[in-house]
Amino acid sequence: MSQLVADLVSVENDEGAAPGGRAIPPRSAAQKRRRRKETLSAYAFLSPWLLGLLAIVLGPMLASLYLSFTRYDLIGTPEFIGLDNYVRMLFEDPRFYRTVGVTAMYTLISVPAILIFSLLLAMFLNRGIRFLGIYRALFYLPSLLGGSVAIAVLWLQVFGSEGIFNAVLALVGIDGPSWIGSPSYALLTVIALSVWTFGSTMVIFLAGLRQIPDTYYEAASLDGASKFRQFLSITLPHLTPVIFFNGLLTIVNALQSFTPAYVISGGTGQPADSLLLYTVYLYLRGFVDFQMGYASALAWGLLLALAAITALLFWSTRFWVFYGEDS
Amino acid sequence: MTTTPAARISPDLLEPSGSRGRRRRGGLFMPRRATNSRLLAGWARHAITIAVLVVMLYPVVWMIDASFKPDAQIGSTLLPFQGPFTLENYADGLNPTSTLNFGLYFFNSFVLAILAVIGNVVACTLTGYAFARLNFPFKKTLFAVLMGTLLLPYQVTIVPQYILFNELGWLNTYLPLVVPKFLATDAFFVFLTVQFIRGLPRELDEAARLDGAGDWGIFRRIIVPLLGPAIATTAMFTFIATWNDFLGPRLYLSNTALYTVPQGLVQFVDSTGQSSIGTLFAMATLSITPLVGFFLASQRLLTQGIATTGLK
Questions:
Q1: Domains in chain A, ordered, with CATH?
Q2: Which residues of B193-208 are buried (b: 16+ CB within 10 A; e: fewer)?
């Protein structure tokens, strides 16, 4: 599970390099020729990716940095306006703080909820339960469906005023409001949808739990350690790389979630901007108002925030992530 | 424009299957006897699991059931599988109207998803092979760049990409949604393939090289035939992500003749609201059928794929 982490932390330890590959200078002309040939064919294999990297990833990234200093509505040429977009973002746009607040709330509730819920269920299912394969599969199913418009449309019904959620509440005598129409509850329905897709996270936890050798638990129970003690001293430390991995993944996913909030709010972020996730706001500014410069500034704001969060998380691993005795 | 952002990955698909066995904790020291309390605990465990599952999956089952009911009957009962049964919603939904043509949208979605799958599989295996097996200058740097793009939020490139594709005259074509796949921009799948190839024995390559095979020959004859699981994982997750993608088509396709299913569903909600909810649910149900079908057909591969890759 920690391969991604290891690769991200130290790409220098790229094991793909042949032993002694580039360290030893080529000795003979034949070796030189062979190396040149290998380089040529490597770049031939890489050419689609390199082209994509330049034309569709890095190029647009730089272009978006430049555009963030301009005013541009797709017609004519971008007009350079210095830091105006960023000034507007930070000091003149109340909706910017609204969208940051909504996104932060969404992330701060859904990410811990997903992590805790999926870890508890994974531990619950890990104790040699029968039909594990079937259960695991069924828990995973919503993860496949969660990002689809079909489920967002279903959510509109479930949490509408005439929806089945209220029908269930009516059984116990509660007269529920239209949850998606209420500024106080609408975001919770979208959070519920994201927590509903916890299965993929749970499956990763399950795989992580299985990597912990049984012998540790056997030794611990021989020493008389309680189940809770075993959880604290064996399960949790061994699972920290997986918790880190899942945490990073869930945060990145949360910050990029678009479809559910868009569909449930009818493409507006309403009611009262309570569903104005950052992605939705960026979409509205960029592709409804065609404020390409301002949308680019918003995008760079997100990139900086995400970079800061990621860096902080990676930095924090030294204090809490346990990579095993051997490393 | 992936609906699933690109941060995920992990260890090798080649984890020895022995370590995947079910754990019987404490089994060695405490032989299990089926005492009454233990049996009860086992049943309780299943009961709790099933209860959670029922709550989770109930809305979907309810929707599928509602799609087979006349509009007037929907919402009359919370218990599924009661009352009249009709296929009318499906007939209504698939019947083209002046504003909606779901038959066409399903066709479009399939074409788009298949093209994306081909693009990703071809481009990501080519790139993955170079990173996993070949040596070349700037390899470490480029690999670091690849890993960096994994965590890059798509929002950062979305505006200039739109401008670029607009300049190229690609609006209202599938090119903006398909060409990036052929250029291996889904870094995640490249990484998945690299990891997988790293796990294949190098002896095979070397034997082929001694027999005079070049890099292309080794890739074509040795690596690709062994890449089955990695290709299947790439293909399946690409299909699902493309099938579910809403933002990409929303940006680039405004001509209704090119619409995909998610666009059709949103259009349906916008134009009819809640007035013909049965038809809406019929089309929504139909739209998740390929996903559920995929899921059932390859349940093992999927859940193992996710466990090893972390992809949603």
A1: 86-320 (1.10.3720.10)
A2: bbbbbbebeeeebeeb
Residue B243, domain CATH: 1.10.3720.10
User: What pLDDT, in 10s, does the model give residues A37-77?
Assistant: 888 888 999 999 999 999 999 999 999 999 999 999 888 88
Query: Would you say residue B58 lies in a domain?
Result: no
User: In this structure, is residue B107 part of a structural domain?
Assistant: yes
Residue of A nearest to B154 (CA): A256
In a domain, B280, yes or no: no
Calpha distance A155→A51 (Å, rounded): 40
Is B37 part of any domain? no
A48 vs B183: CB contact, 8 Å cut-off?
Answer: yes
For residue B213, what are the domain limits?
97-272
Bridge partners of A264, per DSSP, are none
Total count of domains within chain B: 1
CB contact under 8 A, B244 and A259: yes
| H-helix or E-strand spanning residue B251 | helix B247-252
Angstroms from B265 CA to nearest CA on chain A: 7
User: CB contacts < 8 Å between A and B, how many?
Assistant: 349
Nearest CA in chain A to B277: A157
Q: Does B267 touch chain A (CB under 8 A)?
A: no
Render pLDDT for B10-58 as a digit per residue (tens, 0 to 9): 333 323 333 334 444 444 444 455 567 777 878 888 899 999 999 999 9
Pairwise CA distance, residues B288 & B240, whole Å: 10
Which residues of chain B make contact with A234, given a CB cutoff of 8 A?
none
